[in-house]
Every structure is written in structure tokens, then in C-alpha cells.
Specification:
51% of the residues lie in helices and 6% in strands. The protein is mostly helical and 429 residues long. Strand 1 (5-10) and strand 2 form a beta hairpin. Helix 10 packs across helix 18. Bound molecules: carboxymethyl coenzyme *A (CMC). Residues 230, 233, 264-266, 268, 292, 300-307, 357, 359, 362-364 line the site of carboxymethyl coenzyme *A.
């Protein structure tokens, strides 16, 4: 709390509100008592000016292009750390020591297998089901299989549920993929690291040996790090809101996956690649850029723009480098889609429309190209995002549940419907 106060004048009524200071970033005006004191609500659709919670996990400075997890810059975590270390950091607040890391990796690894009955769930879906539809269903169903970790008042159960989800999400995602391509499920291999195990479960087949390329595994791991958490975005806010009612964490994460699916959020990597294919060749870029600028056309350049970043998304820079590493290892030199992507980026970065609005390529612009090169079909892109974001959702959910001031989330509204009126019988309508 600061000594500074915010004053609200409504006609000749005057109200004072406390101003709270974060460790970094903008102060917030604490309007919690607004309704009680003034009989009025605030109106902020899309939460563009509203802090929905207090959090010590992730900090973003969208104007400066900064992303910190528990204070550590994303660039350093992506370059020097690995995904499970990042998971530990998000969950526990600090980087692990060597014994803590070993113990954490063991605990996650111990939970990678799925209850065998769950494999039958997959076969209930159509083969051509979108894997995100499968993810929403199967992750929600975890609460039907792991009753011993759904008591949210028990700290130990909360942690077991968290570890289970981090550990099982790659298994579920890989099974969703295998089912869609008609191949047998591949069980987890606990001798492999997290990313290698995931690639193995996706691309190994019983008929031949599959060796995971360490550069590709490292790229996969980095993609997971880059997507691990992103403050109070739509899916994280969904998880928090679902969790605020006391729902179990598996159900909350299933809600987060549903929200992530949308093209304005996690679905953008799939949409960006689809768009690059639609553009096809660099000479068609001006036509698409013109459409993106035309207000009468709903088309937007997918993979551009961000609610918070009005500067370069720091994750996009790392992703761009990872893209080149992956294409290098795979010997992909003349990818026409990559040519379109590079040219589109160049043109958009020089165009006053994009400059004035602070529209830069976001992480989804490059992740689609990389995931395609790694061998994933476009429908799997958002699935991989959900896999990586699971730890962020869980860390934010745990933080909320463990906050003694936590209460159910319940926004209010500005009502513009009819005033009270009497029921009209059918014959008089
Ligand atoms: N192409 C063309 N114009 C755009 C775009 C775009 N991709 N994004 C925003 N604008 C324009 C928009 O028309 C508006 O112009 P004006 O001021 O003239 O009306 C201005 O920029 C501000 O846009 P907004 O819709 O008010 O911004 P927002 O913060 O509500 O939207 C966004 C953020 C990410 C939903 C939006 O930029 C978008 O739809 N981008 C494409 C989808 C995408 O790449 N999403 C991934 C986001 S990053 C990953 C994640 O967090 O999930």
C-alpha cells in the first residue's frame, strides 16, 4: 500500500481509494469497496484496465517487451534452463538446487503413465476429431480417475494433482495424436527426458527404432519453456475463475484448454500457419496486408499483435532462432512457407499501420513453422501449447487457492435489457 490515494468525483460526491504498489509495474487503484461505497460498478469489458488478482508468478512489461517468471527473464530460462526446472520455478517460486531438481524430475517421471482404463476413452472419439476436443474431454476425465487428488483443501493432494497433470499431459497429447493418425499408442519411457519422451511417444512406432535427435528435443523443450506461463491471459483467467468456485484442478485445467482453443488465443499458431499456406508465395503478401488493414474485412494477420505486447514479443525472438535451428538440423533450406513468413514479417514491420498500432509478430507466428518442421500436423499445435501451459495454469490455480483472501470470482454487469414487465399469455402475443 502507498500513501497515495485516488479520488473519484461523481457530481458533487467525492470518494477516495487506496493505491497499491506492485514490486514492479503499474500501481493499481483498489476499487474493491467501490460498489459498497458508491452503489456503482466499473465497466471494463475485456479487462483492458482491470487487475483481476494479485500474483507473484509472472511479470510482463508489454511496452518494453519483457517477460519474467519469478523475476527471471524468459531469454535466460530458455537459453540456460530446461522445462522441468521452469515448472519447479513457477510452482515453488525459486530455481531448484541439484537435489531438489532431481527429486522433482523423479516425481514427475513417476506419474507419466495413464490409468489404463483411460485408453478406452480415446477410442470413443471419431478418428477425425480435433485433438483439442479430445484434450478437453480426456483432461476433464482425469478427475474421474484420480479421486485421491481432487480434495483441494489438502495441500498434499493439490501437489499430487499438479505433478500428475504436468506428467500426464505429454502422454495424453501424444495419445490424441496417435489416435488421429491411426497408430498404436506408445507408452512413456521414463529413461528419457521430458521433451524426448514426448517426441518418442508421438513419433515412435513398434515396427522400428526411433532415436530422438537431441537438437530437436532441445527445441521442443524450449517451445515448452516459452509457453509455460503468461500472466492473466484468457485461459489462465478461465482456470482461476473455474477454480474460484472450488472445482477440482483437473476440471479447471480442462476449462483452460477449452479457452485456449480459440484462434484469438492458443489457436493462433494453427491459424498463422494456415494463413501462410493461403498466402502461398511472397508476391501475394501485399494483397493480404491490404485485407488486414481494411476495416470492412474481418481478416487479421494471424500471429501478429498482442493484447499486452505493444513491442516485440520476447518469446517470438527466441522462437525465431529456434525455428532456424530446427530447419538447419532437418536440412530444410528452401521452405516456401518460411520465405512467405520472413517477407511478411519484413513488410509488416515497415508498414505504418502495424507500427502505429504496435503490431509485432507474436510467438505463434514462428511456433507454427517450427512445429510443422518437427513433424506435427497443424491441429496438434494448440495441443502442444496446452501441454506447456498446464504448469502455468496449475501454478496460478495453486496461488489462488492458497491465498487466504480468495473468494469466488463473480463479475457484475451493465444491464441494458428490458425493465420489469408482466408475462403475456400466448394468445395475446
Ligand atoms: N491484423 C491486423 N490488424 C490488427 C491485428 C492483426 N493481427 N491485431 C490488431 N489489429 C488492429 C485492430 O484492428 C485495431 O485497429 P484499430 O485501432 O484501427 O481499430 C488495433 O490493431 C488494436 O486491436 P485490438 O483488437 O483492439 O487489440 P486487442 O488487444 O484486443 O487484440 C489480439 C489482441 C491478439 C486478439 C489481436 O492482435 C489479434 O487478433 N491478433 C491475431 C491473432 C493472434 O495472433 N493471436 C495470438 C496472440 S499471442 C498468443 C496468446 O497469448 O495466446
Amino acid at each position: 500500500m502507498t500513501d497515495k490515494k485516488a479520488t473519484l468525483n461523481i457530481g458533487d460526491e467525492h470518494y477516495e481509494f487506496d493505491i497499491r504498489e506492485g514490486s514492479i509495474g503499474p500501481d493499481v487503484i483498489d476499487i474493491a469497496p467501490l460498489y459498497k461505497n458508491t452503489d456503482r460498478f466499473t465497466f471494463d469489458p475485456g479487462f483492458t484496465s482491470t487487475a483481476s488478482c494479485e500474483s507473484a508468478i509472472t511479470y510482463i512489461d508489454g511496452d518494453a517487451g519483457v517477460l519474467l517468471h519469478r523475476g527471471y527473464p524468459i531469454e535466460q530460462l530458455a537459453e540456460k534452463g530446461d522445462f522441468l526446472e521452469t515448472c519447479y520455478l513457477l510452482l515453488y517460486g525459486d530455481l531448484p538446487t541439484a537435489p531438489q531438481k532431481e527429486d522433482f524430475v523423479n516425481r514427475v517421471t513417476y506419474h507419466t503413465m495413464l490409468h489404463d482404463q483411460m485408453t478406452k476413452l480415446f477410442t470413443g472419439f471419431r478418428r477425425d476429431a480435433h485433438p483439442m476436443a479430445v484434450m478437453v474431454g480426456v483432461v476433464g476425465a482425469l478427475s474421474a480417475f484420480y479421486h485421491d487428488s481432487t480434495d483441494i483443501t489438502d495441500e498434499n493432494q493439490r501437489m499430487i494433482a499438479s505433478l500428475r497433470m504436468i506428467a500426464k499431459m505429454p502422454t495424453i497429447a501424444a495419445m490424441a495424436y496417435k489416435y488421429s493418425v491411426g497408430q498404436p499408442f506408445v507408452y512413456p519411457r521414463n529413461d528419457l527426458d521430458y521433451a524426448s519422451n514426448f517426441l518418442h511417444m508421438c513419433f515412435a512406432v513398434p515396427a522400428e527404432e526411433y532415436k530422438v535427435d537431441p537438437v530437436l528435443a532441445r527445441a521442443m523443450d524450449r517451445i515448452f519453456i516459452l509457453h509455460a506461463d503468461h500472466e492473466q491471459n484468457a485461459s489462465t483467467s478461465t482456470v482461476r475463475l473455474a477454480g474460484s468456485s472450488g472445482a477440482n484442478p483437473f476440471a479447471c485445467v480442462a476449462a483452460g484448454i477449452a479457452c485456449l482453443w480459440g484462434p484469438a488465443h492458443g489457436g493462433a499458431n494453427e491459424a498463422a500457419l494456415t494463413m501462410l499456406h493461403e498466402i502461398g508465395t511472397p508476391d501475394r503478401i501485399p494483397e493480404f496486408v491490404a485485407r488486414a488493414k481494411d476495416k470492412s474485412d474481418p481478416f487479421r494477420l494471424m500471429g501478429f499483435g498482442h493484447r499486452v505486447y505493444k513491442n516485440y514479443d520476447p518469446r517470438a525472438k527466441i522462437m525465431q532462432q529456434t525455428t532456424h535451428e530446427v530447419l538447419g538440423v532437418l536440412g530444410i533450406k528452401d521452405d516456401p512457407i518460411l520465405d512467405v513468413a520472413m517477407e511478411l514479417e519484413k513488410i509488416a514491420l515497415e508498414d505504418p499501420y502495424f507500427i502505429e498500432r504496435g503490431l509485432y509478430p507474436n510467438i505463434d507466428f514462428y511456433s507454427g513453422i517450427t512445429l510443422k518442421a518437427l513433424g506435427f500436423p497443424t491441429e496438434m499445435f494448440t495441443v502442444l501449447f496446452s501441454l506447456a501451459r498446464t504448469v502455468g495454469w496449475i501454478a496460478q490455480w495453486k496461488e489462488m487457492i492458497e491465498d487466504p483472501r480468495q473468494k469466488i470470482g463473480r463479475p457484475r454487469q451493465l444491464y441494458t435489457g428490458p425493465e420489469k414487465r408482466d408475462y403475456v399469455g400466448m394468445s395475446d402475443r
